[in-house]
Amino acid sequence: MSAGARRAPGIVGLVVPGPARRLGVEPYFVELADGIEEVLHPQGFGVMVLAVDDLQEELAAYRRWSRDAEVDAVVVVDLVVDDVRPHALDALDLPYVLAAHVDSPFACTSEAADDAVRVRSAVDFLTGLGHRRLGHVCGPPHLVHTQERQAALRARAHELGLAVSTVVADYTAASGVRALTSLLQRPEPPTAVLFDNDVMAVAALEHLTATGRAVPGELSLLSMDDSPLCELSVPPVSAMSLDVHHRGERLAAAVLSVLAGGDAHHPPIGPSHVVVRGTTAAPAALGAGV
């Protein structure tokens, strides 16, 4: 892929799918952009972050950026099944990096830890505490990493003989509370719930506290994403380790590699682990010695 002539200063575009308020609510994208900028700024690049409501708006932004030479490269996040964005960027001759570990020379294979491995680690941690009925509040099912997590969860649950209930949400606080409520209304509700992001996990914790449910006494909560939200909640939310700033740095290094005519591949990052805080414990029955 040809990078073409670069302006000074250069600009790298980062499009965040979803309403603009997502940038203010989810620490993930703020930390990601900070990490990208920390590496790119000394090289003469800035970062342009744009929130879009849908795919058509995102593709229109790419066309505008290419036509007006507004950006030198693009970071693509939240890959979906049969994603058309890489093909559109190829047609526009706009260099890009995919924030994923898919089979592509333009995918930053080390940006996202292997979601299947992370889910297995989460499940093994919860079962190690004695949980046999797990709930899963997942993100939108068309996202590649959501499907990877669901497949890994089903496979590990089958291997261990666990009961798992999954409810689809959209990463927002309100959807996390709705999903949790649905799980707790089931005939055999879970004793532990795994959330695909920190916003939903913290919102669920606040809802449980407000309604008088003890965490982790009655229900354990574990987030797949870690952030200051998890650290500052009461009690702090247990989570899978996640250095989003470092991910941003690696994405920025991948961008520089692509602009220099290379690919986006980097050595794998270290495995994720559970950061144990105040929302996970043995199920109530085990804690009571039953």
SSE inventory with pairings:
Layout (H helix, E strand, L loop, with lengths): L9 E8 L3 H5 L1 H14 L4 E8 L2 H13 L5 E4 L8 H8 L3 E3 L16 H14 L4 E6 L5 H17 L2 E6 L4 H12 L7 E4 L2 H13 L9 E4 L4 H5 L5 E3 L3 H16 L14 E2 L8 H4 L3
Helix pairs in contact: 2-10, 3-4, 5-6, 7-8
Q: How would you characterize the overall build of this protein?
A:
- The longest helix has 17 residues, at 144-160.
- The chain has a six-stranded mixed β-sheet, sandwiched between helices.
- The model is unreliable at 1-7 (pLDDT under 50).
- It starts with 9 loop residues before the first strand and ends with a helix.
- It has eleven helices and ten strands.
- It has two domains: 10-112 and 243-259, Response regulator (Rossmann fold); 115-241 and 274-287, Response regulator (Rossmann fold, 3-Layer(aba) Sandwich), CATH 3.40.50.
- The radius of gyration is 20 Å and the shape is elongated.
- β3, α4 (85-92) and β4 (96-98) form a beta-alpha-beta unit.
- It has 290 residues and is an alpha/beta fold.
